[in-house]
Prior knowledge:
The protein is α+β, with helices and mostly antiparallel strands and about 600 residues long. It contains 19 helices and 28 strands. The strands form 8 sheets. The protein has a 6-stranded mixed β-sheet, sandwiched between helices. Strands 12-11-10-8-13-14 form a 6-stranded mixed β-sheet, sandwiched between helices. The longest helix is centred in the middle third of the chain and has 28 residues. About 50% of the residues are buried. The model has no long low-confidence stretch (mean pLDDT about 95).
Amino acid sequence: MFQDFTASTRPEDGPPRLAALRAQIAKVGLDGFLVPRADAHQGEYVADCDARLAWVTGFTGSAGFAAVLPDVAGVFVDGRYRVQVRAQVADVFTPVDWPEVQLAEWLRSALPQGGKVGFDPWLHTGREIATLETALGGSGVELVPSNNLVDAIWTDRPAPPAAPITIFPDDIAGRTAAEKRAACAEALRDAGHGAAVLTLPDGICWLLNIRGSDIARNPVVQANAILFDDGTLRLFLDDARLTPDLRAHLGPQVHTAPPSSFPAALEGLEGTVRLDTASAPHAISEILQDAGVDIAAERDPTVLPKARKTDAEIAATGTAHLRDAVAMARFLHWFDETAPTGTLTEIDVAKQLESFRRDTGALKELSFDTIAGAGPNGAIVHYRVTEQTNAQVVPGQLFLIDSGGQYEDGTTDITRTLPVGTVGDEERECFTLVLQGMIAVHRTRFPKGVAGQHLDALARAPLWSTGRDYDHGTGHGVGVYLNVHEGPQGLSRRSDVPLEPGMIVSNEPGYYREGAFGIRIENLIYVVDAPEGADPHRKMFGFETLTFAPIDRRLIVTERLCVAERDWLNTYHADVLARVTPLLQAGGYTATAAWLKAACAPI
Length: 603
């Protein structure tokens, strides 16, 4: 199986590792050290060798950081992880609610006399450090670039990844790598930039039509690159990873060099160089500045073209989602019959869903570790079941299952909340409110220029009306056989990038009652041109659906839905039935086809 269920950290390891880190901090004459979750590529997921935050603290969430001082070690996490962090870290660490509490504010309070706080300049972005230095102005707290002090004490640190690299088909991408390089180079010329430094692995993989497996769940190759305004590219990658087929695919305009030569190559750049200071390491900014290179601090040129999916990518990912829909239908049927017996555990459920995806014969990886939370565990937004936390699936509970697959033609991500037998009135009321918010986003039309931050409130409004909310964004961008969390588009208060046709986002409002239950319903959708409205001069967009799986009608308080909401749900279920039933029948899953017909019956 792709997913294992062993706990990768133990709270009891934290105190001795914290003590060792503090000794190292004192040894080099510092008063503190920052330990981010991120690696040098600022990815959400990191290789084992880069999991420094988890190694020191025990916290394994996909976002957060620690600030280690002589007398306090703060672990900063957002609303998704506040339950999780308390379970994973020892009491020598202090969880800090972030972003409500900002790091600069916390450092000012914890170091009232000032002090020197070290950081690894390859693990923090240029924008991050500049913002923090500004916020610390006049405090006496100084940020000091340093060698990584965690690495100095991590004696059994795993080796860096070096997995095989594969070629991504042009017919799925919709454009050749040469066409993509030419388009991005043209954008550089138009802006007067001679080159762009690329540090995002998914951007480099998209640009070159390659994929890898350097990071679990994300089919990327960890590398840096420099794209020049004539379309040539310098790729910093170990020579041993370059097979003859890969060299032929890259072509003569892509020149490779060892990763160790990257700093020297930066120093040799001339003219104006584009650098995305929101994602590139602070160290790169410093190298370029010291070399006298003129930096244009602008977005990575691959980010927006990658987000605007081609027609071929949309068609391919639609195929992947229908394949995944068969696995989900089989799973939901199995769960409906088996869960009420009380014999299942969370691990049983996660394993069974992965087995149904494997049965497709096309699964390359999971798109993330399956979130399978029974009852109270469903309230942990990014819960990862382990052998230590594995809970029984008990009748009367809600069960939250958030999962996805990586297929060569697409990346899937779907959440369903399921009843185990009969559940309470409050659970059904909250589920209905979440569903209403999800439907509101699906149904909306919006003018050109609208960003995710403008639509986020649609999903929350039904919950807000009853004094409820959730502490995560409503949706994130999704790649095509790339990262399941992809920027810059999204549906959240922070998403200020206008939505454009071809952009894929998730639509996943939720509600969580700590210690009791969690609810989330998620479909993937993509932006399309909407029919012309009353004002023919105003361009309008809407959403089309990629995810086709029934939403459990037993959890809906039907009388709370308006006519338009009922119509949407009935139309959606009719669409699920029409698209998925023939695939089930073709696979010989006739019992599941019969189950699906009942599950999709109109309300």
